[in-house]
Protein: PLP-dependent aminotransferase family protein
Amino acid sequence: MPFDFTPLFPASLPPPAVRWAGAPKYNFVGGNNDPGEVPLDGLMAAAQSVLQREGRTLATYGLNSGPQGYRPLRDFLSTKLKRDAGMTCSADDILIVSGSLQALDLVNSALLARGDTVIVEKDNYQGSLNRFTRLGVTAVGIPLDKGGMRMDALEAALQDLKARGVTPKFIYTIPTVQNPTATILDESRRARLLELADAYDVPIVEDDCYADLVWSGERPRAIHAMSQSDNVIHIGSFSKSIAPALRVGFVVAPWAVMSRMLALKTDAGSGALEQMVLAEYCAAHFGTHVPALRKGLRKKVETLMEALNEQFGTAAEFDDPKGGIFLWVKLPDNVDSLKLYQAALKEGVAINPGPEWSVDKDHSKSRIRICFASPSHQDIREGIAVLADVCRREFGVPTRSSNVAKA
Amino acid sequence: MPFDFTPLFPASLPPPAVRWAGAPKYNFVGGNNDPGEVPLDGLMAAAQSVLQREGRTLATYGLNSGPQGYRPLRDFLSTKLKRDAGMTCSADDILIVSGSLQALDLVNSALLARGDTVIVEKDNYQGSLNRFTRLGVTAVGIPLDKGGMRMDALEAALQDLKARGVTPKFIYTIPTVQNPTATILDESRRARLLELADAYDVPIVEDDCYADLVWSGERPRAIHAMSQSDNVIHIGSFSKSIAPALRVGFVVAPWAVMSRMLALKTDAGSGALEQMVLAEYCAAHFGTHVPALRKGLRKKVETLMEALNEQFGTAAEFDDPKGGIFLWVKLPDNVDSLKLYQAALKEGVAINPGPEWSVDKDHSKSRIRICFASPSHQDIREGIAVLADVCRREFGVPTRSSNVAKA
Structure:
């Protein structure tokens, strides 16, 4: 008679996971990257040289670098963040973490308590929204336009909260290639955001995970770089620029917050081999690898946009993104993207339904997120054709595809 | 004027960390290993071959293996756990985690709520005790003797709790090279433990992190292997057998618990490169590497025991351990190990004071944990001599060292 663990589970536990059944054939979900763009030779050479030189430090937790992570990787980041994002921070201001998701967990644990309120872009990263929900934190959504978070709406929300006696714990923003809208907040809006943050005494959490993937290679200065009052916690990652299965991200934070995050980071350090290999590789090759990666991603999104135009015609509305790995697509109002998601999955096509990526379930009902970095060009074309067929069968749209009228 | 984050911190937050000041000269704390025993050539070769063959899968979260971790590593573990520990489990029963600390967090989160009670060995791993404290869980300590957890005392505690209407959520045990006592629970006690667990309807969490380091190479069957009712969650690690800075551990659990842990593991997978390199290396070399490592560790502990005998004489009491990386030492009753810890640290010697490794602060007051794997033989001798000097200065003992009477 097997022991029954069920009565032991606390009531607050999330529902159980289902068994993994393998990836769908046409996989347009998850922040996966292009397998062809993994810099294998460079990573292999980096592994050899760094292990040869200092592999024996693997015998020590945290290497010889202490709890904030491998020092040469923090040194690389300090230089990179200055060069690319205009940020002034030293290795001592940087904490290496096991992917930016751990950064979110540490920031949330250090600052949030049940019942708190945060401000977020209305359409947002599912992983962040789910975290706030699990913590019992209210996420107030600010609408976006083609320029990202609307500052008039942010000001109104701050005023409204203040009138109700609510001080949000922080403004969580993905300003550079926003997830899922792919919008980029320009520097004038960033300046306004900082003014509002100062005026209402609310700090900012800047999630900059996609910032390396702006097609032009030119990104606005980080909000962290523009702040005069050290009120910005900055989060980044190597998942999008090198490889997502390497779980290496980072947080830049003032010591007041850093010292609290360190006290909460009771994992005896993040994976050392990945940190060592990344530091070795990136110091020499980051600057040439990433532009090549961006070119490949740009070609992928062009294939995706062509396929959508061909298969959906005017039924699929989207803006040509300025960077990233996903497209946020508006389908006709009668399309329920949660139903479309279920129906498409049965045909081997995985997409993200809008309501899972937004605090506004009505606004996002007919929207979907399509990740384009991982599937091949051919799979993008085939998968979007299947998606259009499913959508037509379920919702009667698109009525035309491949320039042919459909029943 | 810098932004003040202080008012934002929730009241429940642990105290802030202090800035890392580097490792002490004589470092007898932490589960660090012998730098000379890191199998560098093997790890380099493994990195090359596995990256060459399947490195492109790094572009996909979780590789092609799903959320339970890199499949070849789980396959290796399935075989290893059968061979070494007598366990019958398939890759589907195994979850790869970012070090066994994440395993503890997931097990605790899946099973514990504030106010719960667990049963533990009285002297215990600080990381586990701290976790229970932070969660607001009462840890009831069971005394140990030379054979590990005393089953008569466990039975009495279970009876006592039952009489008080308390059902412990689980019995947490480190049965094979217990931390810090280095005791090994033999199979007859394991059988009795399972009887008691069945009788009182309490499951067991078996933390087997040190089990590879039994000098003889022969370990009792895992409690998991002996259970008839699938009531054991088994935790293991590669930190002690390969290298601690690689953050790779694992949990074996029935699906009822596994599915809950998976729902709680929202980190998008554990580090893939470390999993890949370990799987590649271990499949070929684990069986030859670990016996060599054990030999080296045995020599280290012999140096430590000689140094203690020479410097402390009869003032230091300990049992010759049957494996592991630490020694649990009893000093004379007047020694306050928390004070000794502070004084020794000033002289560059780090030890673990007993009260941080026990639920019984009186019992552990004059005890210390000394980790011997990382320091060189010379540093062990020098560090123990400094420790004896500090101890004599602070507490008047040992009165003799190096066979010479001291003032």
